[in-house]
Amino acid sequence: MTGRESRRERARAMQGRRAGFASRVVAAAIDIAIVLAVYEISLLAYGLVRSLLTEKAFAMPTPSAWFSGTILTLLIIVGLAIAWSGSGRTIGSTFIGLRVVTDRGEPLTFFRAAGRALVLVVVPVFSMGWILISRKNAGLHDLAAHTTVIYDWHPRHEPFHPRVPPEATPVVPDPVESRQN
Amino acid sequence: MTVAQPVPEPVDPAVPGAADVLRRGTQVGFGAIGLAGRAAGSLLARVPTARRGSVPDPAAPPAALLPGAVAGMAIAVERVVQIVVDEVMSRGVGVARVVTRPRIVRWSLRPVEDTLWRFNEIARREQERNQAEAAVFMPVLIQRVTENVIAQIDFVRVVQQVPVDDIVASLDIEGIVARVDLVGIIRESTASVTSEATDALREQGMNLDLFTAKIVDRLLLRKRPRQLDVETQ
Q1: Which of A143, A136, A77, A135 is nearest to A110 (CA)?
Q2: ipTM
């Protein structure tokens, strides 16, 4: 077996298992960068529209810290809740190949996703840091919402199939193979 | 009997004179003729024999038959001459054999025979050297001639005279593009490259996950592995 095949085999074996600290931090960092970019673009668009509709020259808006903090918090909570309750993955999670499901492998409801996002936004560092300590790779937001994050490279949005013994493996397309071929 | 041996002459590094140019040119010319003859013989040996039985068009005017008639007449003459020469040679050999049988005749013809052998040997050796020189000279000559010809060609003018618009107008480019799924090809190739890079990044993330978990578990003196499987219902 070549190195590439062994890596694919290991990646295939990891599908559906709980994801660890590094992958989840990278996915969260991508999501935060996207939210910040959306916020900055919104400010830029507001400044452009203001300069076009009024006599003022263009200038980048400089909102107060509490305004920016509130808007960013709302953006993150609403965005995460919509993404987690929909496909179970944000843009960052899609890129890294992660999916958020309940402890029983089911999709999240909107309110459960919103509660999970609220806990994560309120205590982000402590919540993410708990993944390092937890035996189940669970952050505080996972413990609060009874959720978990799994590796799922499957490109399409399909119902999650929890891991079952090999002799009863359901017929589902292999996410690693389907991506490689 | 003395055998003629061509003595190699030292090459004068100075500027060659007219005699040298003439001598060298003659040698190369003979060599080139020899190579050309060999190449022609090789080429003719590969030409397949034409099929017989092609019948001329009966409606053709008599003037159109003239070239064929001349060629046919020449072939007939050549065959007659060949038959006559063969006959003369066969009879001449017999006569020569009878004539040269006496010892005195053979003795008197010996110098002539030696002379013929000597010239034949000179010709053979010189021709070998000429052909070798021609084989060296011809590629250089062809290269120089080709370069000079290319340098003389005004490619811009030649290209401008090519009727590109007419050629393009005669092509059904829209039909060709419609048959080629360019979008699909670009999408598939781009998706393949992106997928490879993404999967590599994901694998690195997996490895880092396992590594960090192992480090923390050792720091916490844990002996049991982490529970990474999601419980089924």
Answers
A1: A77
A2: 0.78
Sign of torsion over alpha carbons A22, A26, A31, A32: positive
Distances (CA, A) of B136 to B28, B32, B56, B128: 9, 10, 47, 13
Q: In whole angstroms, what is the distance from residue B150 CA to residue B146 CA?
A: 6
- Extract the tokens encoding B222: 């844990």
CB contact under 8 A, A180 and B205: no
> Closest chain A residue to B210 measured between Cα atoms?
A20
- Structural domain boundaries of chain B? 26-45+64-153, 176-219
Beta-carbon count within 10 A of B49 CB: 5
Give whole-number Cα distances, B27 to B41, B116, B136, in Å: 21, 21, 12
Does residue A103 contact residue A147 with C-beta atoms inside 8 Å?
A: yes
Three-state DSSP at B205 gives helix
CA distances to A87, A88, A111 from A91, rounded to whole Å, are 10, 10, 20
Letter for the amino acid at A83? A
| B220 interaction partners in chain A (CB closer than 8 Å) | 133
In order of B46, B170, B190, B193, the CA distances from B180 in angstroms are 43, 19, 17, 21
Residue A17 φ then ψ, to 5° = -95, 165
Whether the CB-CB separation of A4 and B203 falls below 8 Å is answered with: no
Question: Across the interface, do A162 and B232 touch by the CB < 8 Å criterion?
Answer: yes
pLDDT tens for residues B161-213?
888 888 888 888 788 878 888 778 887 777 777 778 888 889 889 999 999 99
Cβ pair A132:B212 closer than 8 A: yes
Tokens 């006569």 map to which residue?
B95
Give the whole-angstrom CA distance, residue A25 versus residue A20: 9
Ranges of H-type helices in B47-154: 66-99, 103-152
CB contact A93 to B (< 8 Å)? no
pLDDT digits (tens, 9 = 90+) for B76-119: 888 888 888 888 888 887 777 777 777 777 788 888 888 888 88
